[in-house]
Amino acid sequence: MRRFLAASAAALALSLSSAIASTEFPAKLAGHAILPAETFIQPPADAPADLKISGRFTNVARAEGVGTVMGRSNGRPTGLRVPFFGQPVQGHSGIKRMRDGTFWVLTDNGFGSKLNSPDAMLFVRRYNIDWGRGAMDALETVWLHDPDSKVPFRIANEGTAKRYLTGSDFDLEGFQPIGDKLWFGDEFGPYLIRTDRSGKVEAVFESQVDGKPLRSPDHFRVAASNPGAPTDPTVNLGRSRGYEGMAASPDGKFIYGLLEGPVWDAEKKDWEKTAEGRTVLRILEFSVTEEKWTGRHWKYVLEPGATAIGDFNMIDATTALVIERDNGEGTPDKACPAGQRAETCFHDLAKFKRVVKIEMTDANANAPVRKIGHIDLMKIADPDKRARKPLNDGVLTFPFFTIENVDVVDARHIIVGNDNNLPFSSSREPNKADDNEMVLLDVEALLKAR
């Protein structure tokens, strides 16, 4: 009977969580900044010469001529061609506001996979965002490198002195500065990486879930199977489904890694789901002081209509913000005719793009987080006319395929940004590569909700 009551309580908590999640709060645009899609930087002077050109392997086979391969978004040409001269400042996949009001922004692995990103360098940049001008001004760039060979597997630039890291080594999607260290969450392994403030790798931590190693098919310890053989039994996470969001406790003692994909349930021979069939993502807790996984976790249950999370940052010790989204892009005014698909219109529109406020406490550890409420990024009010892109039916939409940056700015504002997947996303215009956008949102009611 006790076991039945516990199960009933858990089901009730999950049901209540879902009901509360449907509470929508308003969002008003307080600022809008644009970093143009075609923004490039040159690698450090001591980087290998071949890194002056990026994007040569986006089709896996080499393409040497700059600007010879058209980027495409869901089959639509985006107007930008690779390879690029220089490193693109794109793929914004994590953000952290600093006390001085500047923002660190993470650039992810480059072009989407291990195979196509060996010439995409890994780095973070610090920006001052001038909301009045709508501009992002770069203040410094930190390039990740591994001169002491702390990475436990062969990297793309193995034979060089500085050993700069690339998108073939890691897919960085989460980021937290803690003290004088930088911590990065990777999707490939998945791994947790610690560097000093210069970007020099000091340690790489393999992941654990339920007391067992957590490994995707890209983990360096995974042995490839022969044709027709069973898959490696140590694989319990999908490819590129590692840490998409990474938060830290306000005191810097704990890191919370939110997986993009569900863990494999070996007993049920299926991905982890609720009884109703909804996808469950794990939030794994890592002790910074002890440098180990604590074994605790929380469950993030995706809402119907959502396919993934985009970012994750704490508000305070027990509440946090999570981006939850679908895979759609574009708005109805640029939609293809019903049932049709073409290169000049959107056939799979953006519908579910939210920032969700959650609660994760000791009381609900190892159980679903409580969803307190959300804002809808497809209807951002703009009464003060701050938008720097056209409105849709009187509101600013954020119709991007991937939205991967969210953090608290102050007691009433948050910042949200897209990942433009350069040159592979064109979510505002069917055939124009997306800019990197940041919006400052007045969401006082959401932040006060309990």
Report on the architecture of this protein.
This protein has one domain (40-349, 358-373). It has 450 residues and is mainly beta. The strands form ten sheets. Strands 12-13-14-15-16 form a five-stranded antiparallel beta sheet, with no helix packed on it. The chain has a four-stranded antiparallel beta sheet with strand order 1-31-30-29, with no helix packed on it. The chain has helices at 2-21, 444-448; strands at 28-35, 40-41, 53-54, 69-73, 76-82, 84-85, 87-88, 92-97, 103-107, 123-130, 135-143, 172-178, 181-186, 191-196, 201-209, 212-214, 243-248, 254-259, 264-265, 270-271, 280-287, 292-301, 308-314, 319-325, 353-359, 370-376, 380-381, 395-396, 403-408, 413-418, 436-442. 6% of the residues lie in helices and 38% in strands. The model is unreliable at 1-20 (pLDDT under 50).
Number of helices: 2
Give the structural class: mainly beta
**Uncertain spans:** 1-20
Shape assignment: globular
The average pLDDT is 94
Number of domains: 1
Largest sheet descriptor: 5 strands, antiparallel
Helical fraction equals: under 10%
Number of beta-strand segments: 31
